[in-house]
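To: structure desk
From: M.T.
Subject: fold request, one chain
Message: Could you run this one when you get a chance? Sequence is below, nothing fancy, just the single chain.
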Amino acid sequence: MLLLAGLLPLAAPAQGLTPSGKAGDSAAATRPVGAAQRTADYIVAVVNSDPITNHEVLARVARVQQQLTQQGTKLPPREVLVREVLERLINEKAQLQVARETGLKVDDVAVDQAELSVARQNQLSLPDMRKRLTQDGIVLSRFREELRDQLLLARVREREVEPRVRVSEQDIDQYLSEQKDSPDATSVEINLAQVLVAVPESASEAQIAALQARAGLVAARARAGDDFTALVREFSDAPDRDRAGGQFGLRDADRYPPLFVEATQSLRAGGIAGPVRSGAGFHVLKVVEKRQTSLPGMTFTQSHARHILLRTGAQQSEAAAVARLADFRRRILAGQGDFAALARANSQDGSAREGGDLGWANPGQFVPEFEQTMDRLAPGQISEPLISRFGVHLIQLLERREARLTEREQRDMVRNLVREKKLDEALATWVQDVRGRAYVELRDPPQ
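Reply: Done. Structure tokens follow.
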């Protein structure tokens, strides 16, 4: 199954709201979907005037189960998962209604780009991804509508929440003081790759022993120097086996299952751990990269990029801007145009006079969609046109380097960290407020 974009974290447990908006009978909110009802479709909740169906809940439950399983995380009881997924869908419906009431829209060009991004995350061409989705029983039109909804949610949250957040110099001083006094002021970032040998729930003891031996063989071959990416392709049962050699990507240690962190904590880059057993099966883990980060003297990767920005509006649609930048990209790659010259003549921001040069940038300096695209580029590569809140960009990565933070750069980075924390808190408050104002009716399954 494909790694799908837009799967957001689960919300807090359902509050059992009645149409009056007050806490009421929580039995309907906590009642799991019965096995006999799973093939039938019916309305399980109404948010203002929008229904949520049984099929919507079950489809999202399946996606969450897929994500948790590939991460090696133990699945919660099904009734808990169903309840939390239903709560997430209720919150999303209410937020989407706010977005539409205020006139926000997402056009087809943005959805096309999001669909292409999902394909790239799975290292597939767009036609191959669509074929895989169909094989997995996912209707393509529904998939695109889910992408559209995720983009619309991001835009309404950005508009409603970001203006509420301010970071003062006192906030930065307090954060630095807390980190300095912390017994564990150093954090670890890890990039792990895995081979998962899945164990079916109904497996016998003999089958489990055979699967464990298979995982042991993989671990032995990895320790002997066999190419880990080839082992992933040959042996892994993980849904993400086709993605980047089974790698999870560089992330804070606390974003991994504790089992993975414990198994690899004494290893350096290149080390092999396992097999280790989880609820999903046996995992063989490779430490691709590990680095210690701390605020004092922190090292980090800087990126030097340039871009061409075309703003969108009444004079220029997103589709027109994307087509224009795609033509610029084609001309540059064919040797018929120069990036800097095109930027000076066409880019619509302050970097135009410098040929689009953005200088050396620290992590977190650009908006997430820009930074994620830039981070996937190798030096010299040019991105496809990218839509952000500012317009449409064409990005070229020039070079990368390792650097150490000066005191001023530390404060700038802390400002971004504190801002992200405050954004999370403000978002939670806004989501709760939107939910509190919504008319929510929870319905029992038909008898």
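Reply (cont.): The domain at 186-294 is CATH 3.10.50.40 (Chitinase A; domain 3). Let me know if you need anything else for the meeting.
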